[in-house]
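re the bet — no i am not wrong, look at it urself. input seq straight from the record:
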Amino acid sequence: MLKDEEILAVYNQGPDAVITLVRELFKSFEFQVAVLDARIKHLENQINTNSKNSGKPPSSDGLARTKSQRKKSGKKSGAQKGHPGHTLEMVPIPDKVQVHKVKQCCQCGVRLTDQAAESVERRQVVDMPPLKLEVTEHRAEQKTCPHCGAFNKASFPVEVTQPVQYGPEVKALAVYCNQYQLIPYDRTEELFRDLFGRPFSEGSLFAANQLCYEALDGAEQEVKQQLLNSPVINCDETGSRVEGKTQWLHVVSTPELTYYGIHPKRGSDAMDELGILPFYTGIAKHDFWKAYFKYVLCGHSLCNDHHLRELTWVIENEHQVWGSADVRSAP
């Protein structure tokens, strides 16, 4: 900011000096406006960036609703006209049969209980029996030899190790609810209490998960080997909370196989330790995360979903219509 005496000194130098000063001030003003415009644009882009128009995870969107890339079909919800439909089919041999007898004539009232039916109309109800845990008691005999007096005891099956324990089917159901359906520990315990009248404690569930983890080691190695032999794999990573800390869930997949690995790091240190990308020689499809390009034995292909999100960002924030689906599909 010029002081009054500085402005007066320029004025006293004549019109040319004043014009030069005004031009310099305009240049400075235009530069500051350009800087502020760029800053505003940067902040607006940050606000308008979400999981639908960038590589940000959906969890970062909060409660704000984002625009879907799906186009409205104009059709009503539900089954469409001409849809073949899928109805329950009758089973040839039902588990139970209930016969509803004709007891008397609906016209004259004569008794028909002893008359054989000429035909029946069938309807089936598919339901489930009351949920109840089946308890099997194992009894190991104990005998004393009458000849030598030795005490003999039968052996329990190797899997029966406790006075009272859950069997493999119950453990498998608990692990399925917790690990695949993502039902938390406490709610899994509540589910078992509500459905079966017995809780499956958090300690029991932890032990069942550990047992399943150890049993699946061979299957995990087989999945990794098949992924290494696949011509194309999909790679991604996303943040995940483990014991209150942020770690990274890495995934390598094909339409038939999926491998998950959790690691404190996101980049190539984690990918090296997981042991797939360092040895892969096919085509790795990913989201352009720089860590993937460290691996030179394989080819690289970029994810089209991320391309579409970036085009959406260009449309929404730069207002460039060339990125729209209508323009891209034009001949």
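see?? The longest strand covers residues 232-242. told u. also Residues 4-37 form one domain. so pay up
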